[in-house]
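Standup notes, structure subgroup. Blocker cleared on the magnesium ion input:
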Amino acid sequence: MTVLAPTDVLHDPLTGLSNRTLLLRQLRAMLAEAAGPAVLFVGVDRFKDINDTLGHQAGDELLRRLAERLQGAVAAEDVLARFGGDEFVVVCRGVTDERGAIAAAERVLAAVCAPVELRERPRFVTASIGVVVPSGPHEGVDELLRDADVAMHQAKSAGGGRFALFDQAMRERIIQRVQLEHDLREALRREEFVLEYQPVVALDAPRILGVEALVRWEHPRLGLMAPAAFVAIAEETGLIVELGRWVLGEACRQLARWASDPAIDLPSVSVNLSGRQVAEPDLPEVVADALRRTGAPADRLVLEVTESVLMSEAASPAAVLQRLKALGIRLVLDDFGTGYSSLNYVKRFPIDALKVDRSFVAGIAEGPEDRHILAAIVSMAAGLRLEVVAEGVETLDQARWVRELGCDAAQGYLFAAPAPASALEALLRRGLPLARLSAVWDAAPIAERGVSPDGGASPDGEHAADEQTVPLGEAAEALGLSTSTLRRWADSGRIRAVRTAGGHRRFPVSELQRLKSAPALLAPPALRLTPLPSAPLIAVHALLAQDGGPIAGAAARLIYDDGTRTGWLSSADAEPHLERWACETAAACQAGDYDAAIDAMRALMRQGRYAGASLVERELFAERCGDLVLHRLQERSVERAQLVGARRLFVRLRQELAREAPAGV
Ligand code: C2E
Ligand code: MG
Ligand code: MG
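Run returned:
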C-alpha cells in the first residue's frame, strides 16, 4: 500500500490513507464479489485529551504516526482508511472467519499500543478496536460499519486498549437498551414507578430511626425492576431529574401521611438523590416545593447523596447542599467507602451521617480486614460528629459486629427488606418484629465473650466475675501508654477489657501483667499490608498510559501546598523520571504484575533520595498521586472493582515506602 499525494478527493490529506468515500466504495465492491471480509474499527482512546493538553499539532502528528504503524500491521491486500477524527478502519480482505479477524485485531492492537514520541517525550497511546465478521452475504456496508463501531465502543467502555468482537448478544443488548430507554420515557407518564421503603434500625436499642425510599419500576412486560436496571439509563438520558422529582414528591406525600398518624412513630424518611439532580441549581426549590405541597415536616426528611456528588467539579455541590440544609433537612453520605473522598474532604460539606457501603459489612463477621476499616471510619466519623449507619446487614453476626465497632444504626435484610408502603405501614403500626432479634441488642459486647475484633479468641475466654480489674487511667499508667491508645487497643482486641454495668472499661490485672512481661507486645504493631489487587487494573493502565506524566507532575506540585516552594519532585529534572514511573506503572497494571509497580515506585523514590527529596516529600508524592488517579478514574466512571483495586494498589505503594523508610531515609 502506498501513501498517495495528499491532494486527491479520495484520500485523507493528513495521513494519505483512503478516506471514508473511498473506503465505502471499496467495501461495497468487496461485498458484491465474495463472502464479506472482516472489518476492524479502530478508535484512539481519549484522543481528545491529547488534543486538549498537547495541542492540535501534536494531535495531528499522533494520527500520522498511528497511520504509519497501522500500515505496517496490515496485509498488503487489506484496505486501510481514516474514517474520520481519530477513527481508522481496516478491511481484512482475506479474512472471513473469527479466528483470522482476532489475529488481525491483535496485530493492530500491538502496533498501536506503544509509546509515541510527542513533544520530545514518550506518550503511551492505546486504542480500542471493534471487530465484525459478516455472518452472511445479506449484510450491507452500513450495517457492517455500524456493528464494528458498536463493538469499538464496547471495547472503550471496558477500559480501552483492547478489542471486542461484535456478536448477536451485543446487538440484542443494544436493541433492548434502546427499547428500555423508550419505555422509560413513557413510564413516568403512565405512572409505572412505585416506591418501597426499608427501615433503618438503631443499634443502642431496638427502635426504628427511619425508612429509606427505594424506587421500583413496574414494567408492563418485564415485571418489577430494581433501580440497578434503569437508574443508570435514566441518568444518562437526563430523565433522572424528572424521575427524582416524582420520587421526592411521592416520598414526601407518604411522610406527611405517616407523620400525621398518631399510631405511627417514624422519625424520618430518606430519599436518594442522583448527581444529576444535585447539579440542577433549582434542587433546593424543588425540595422546598415538595415539602410545601405535601405538608411533610422538613426535619423528618433525609436526603442521601454519594461521594461522587461531592467530588464533581462541574456543579457547586457545597452551595446546593448548604441551601438544602437551610430548609431544615438532614443529609447522609451514601455508599461511603466506595468512592474516594477522604473524611477530611467530607468535612467541607454539611453532612450529618455516613452510610458505610455494604461491601465493608459483607465480610465483617469473617475476618479482621473489614473490621479494621469500619473501626477506622467510625473513629474518624466520631471526630467529625457524624453518625454512622451500616448498610446491608444480613446476619446476626454482622449486626453484632457493626454494633460492637460503634456504628449508630443499621439497615439490611436481617431487620427488614424494602416493602411497599402499605405492607410497611402495617408493620409500623404493630411495631417491627425486632424482638426476635433481641440478641443484637442484649448480647454482651463481643470482646467480653472472648472474641477480639481480630477474630481470635482472647487468652482466657470468658471473664470470671471475681477477676481483679483496674480502670482505664490506672491501666494506661501501668503500661506507660496514653488512655486513647489503650482505648484503641481495647477496641482492636490487642488487650482484653471488660465493661462495667455503666459501660466503662476496666482492665484485668492479669492482662497488664501479660503485656508487661513481654515488652515486644508493647511495641508498635507491624504494618498490616493491604492486599494488592488480584486482577489487572486496565483502567489505571489506560489512565497512566495516556496521562501518567501530567498526573505525576500535578501530584508532585501538590506536595508544596502554597505553590511557591519547589523541590526535586516538582523540578524539570524529575520530569523524565516521573514519565518513566508512569509508563512502568501503566505496564504493570496492564499485566497485573504489581511487584513491578512497587519496583517502579522504589526506583523513582531512590532517584528522589539521591537528588535530595526528603522522606516526607516522597511519601506525600505517593499519597497525592493516589488521590489524583482515583479522582480521575471516578470522573471516567470506571467500575467499582477497578476503583477498589486502584485504591489498594496506591495504599500499598505508600505502605511499601513507609516500610523502607527507616533504612533508606
Ligand atoms: P442504596 O441507596 O445504597 O440503597 C440500598 C440498596 O441496598 C437497596 O437496593 C436495598 O434494597 C439494598 N439492600 C438493603 N438491605 C440489603 C441487604 O441486607 N443485603 C443486600 N445485598 N442488599 C440490601 P435497591 O433498592 O436495588 O437500590 C439500589 C440503588 O439504587 C440504591 O442504593 C440507590 O443508589 C439507587 N436508588 C434507589 N432508589 C433511588 C431513587 O429514587 N433515586 C435515585 N437517584 N437512586 C435510587
Ligand atoms: Mg441510599
Ligand atoms: Mg447505599
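Discussed briefly. DSSP finds 27 helices and 20 strands in the chain.
Next: hand off to the docking folks.
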